[in-house]
Design goal:
The complex is a heterodimer of chains A (281) and B (185).
Chain A lengths: L1 E4 L4 H13 L3 H13 L3 H20 L9 E9 L2 E4 L3 H15 L24 E7 L4 E8 L1 H4 L3 E5 L4 H16 L7 E9 L1 H11 L11 H14 L15 E11 L4 E8 L6 E4 L1
Parallel strand pairs in A: 1-3, 2-4, 7-8
Antiparallel strand pairs in A: 2-5, 5-10, 6-9, 7-9
Chain B lengths: L3 E6 L3 H6 L5 E10 L2 H12 L12 E3 L27 H6 L4 E4 L5 H10 L2 E4 L5 H5 L2 E8 L8 E15 L6 H9 L3
Parallel strand pairs in B: 1-2, 2-3, 3-4, 4-5
Antiparallel strand pairs in B: 2-7, 5-7, 6-7
Classes of the chains: A alpha/beta (281), B alpha/beta (185).
Chain lengths: 281, 185
Amino acid sequence: MRDFNVSDVIEPVKKLCIEANTILPEDVKKKLLDAKEKETSPVGKEVLAQIEENMEISATEKLPLCQDTGFAVLFVEAGQDVHFVGGDITDAINEGVRQGYTDGYLRKSIVDDPVVERKNTKDNTPAVIHWSIVPGDKVKITVAPKGGGSENMSTVKMMKPADGLNGIKDFVVEWVRNAGGNPCPPVVVGVGVGGTFEKVAFLAKKALLRDIGDRNPNPVFADAEKEVLERINKTGVGPMGLGGKTTALEVYFETHPCHIASMPVAINVNCHAARHQSVIL
Amino acid sequence: MSERKKITAPFADEVVKELKMGDGVLMSGVIYTARDAAHKKLVELINEGKELPFDMQGAVIYYVGPSPAPPGYAIGSAGPTTSYRMDPYAPLLIEHGMKGMIGKGQRNQAVLDAMQKYGAVYFAATGGTAALIARSIKKAEVIAYPELGAEAIRRLEVEDFPCIVANDAHGGNLFAEGPEKYKEA
């Protein structure tokens, strides 16, 4: 057993919140630059050029890429040989988020009661934390700030097994087409298939953490990813929905075994600022 | 992009008439920020016949909730938020003199109808280019509802704010015509 003092997550979480909001992962950056070269719409090219300039300003001046610095979504993989000591690990993670969003001049976008009062919690807590227990004695923390605009364009559909893979592909393509400019295209599309109602939404979210070009190990779903990406880029929606060839940067499928009666499908859309940063402690 | 039109806010009907779908624009002058919560309050004031926190005649509203300003900056990152959430409120503001809106994403038919009827323009700014846009904001001051934090109404002095005419007052709609032009499937 490795004793792990919970206060040791505060500083790393703080740092991840700030870095994730100011530095875009290299693979996303490269894909956006490639897209700018290939885009044929003048308006689309201009939008992508602005996105490129923004990345540079953001990285050099340490200003957030987007004013919507998101819901702090964390994926924590805790080794089963880790023993958390010295307090409540959830409180410690939230303290890291609080410090990151305050000291990093990030926007506080969380309201306490979702319906009536909608009063801002003023420090962007609480975070959404997804835990998993894995072998070993390390703790891996990923911070993936998620903006409201693209999250609002996400969905879950309990499809019939008879709808098949073609039904899923059509559903995803038409969903992204209809979202238009709202989720800040070019988007990254996470598709969850299988599991249960709540599991499928988690799969779609988790898919967004993959690297550009990282295909599903199952060739059937790897092909589906490529086909859906190509079809989305033929919709004409384009950068910011103003028309063009670049509507999505990547499509990722994540699957899970499911019930004989079911075929749940979830689509989690991410904006072009596909932010996430990780650390292993 | 070709030549960009330089315009100054607030602006009159003549400017509205000249702007066409797809025009690249550099906006200067004074604009106001408001999101859902502030729009709700503005519409309540109009319905109660009370005075608004700023003059709506010729006004441009920017849909934004900026991040906090670090020391030495007028404002933090300040890109557009999704506009459809303001659709329930925008027609009444247009009726009361608003001439421009800056945001991202398509609008509903009621907003487009009000824009044509009273003369107003919807400008698209690039979502997620918040650090870039912040450079064109020279001064920011909260003028109403400070309790709303990022959602408070701010008076912004802007210089060459880059945006694109997405919907003009003549029915031109780049969110429909742009994708139609590049559609292959």
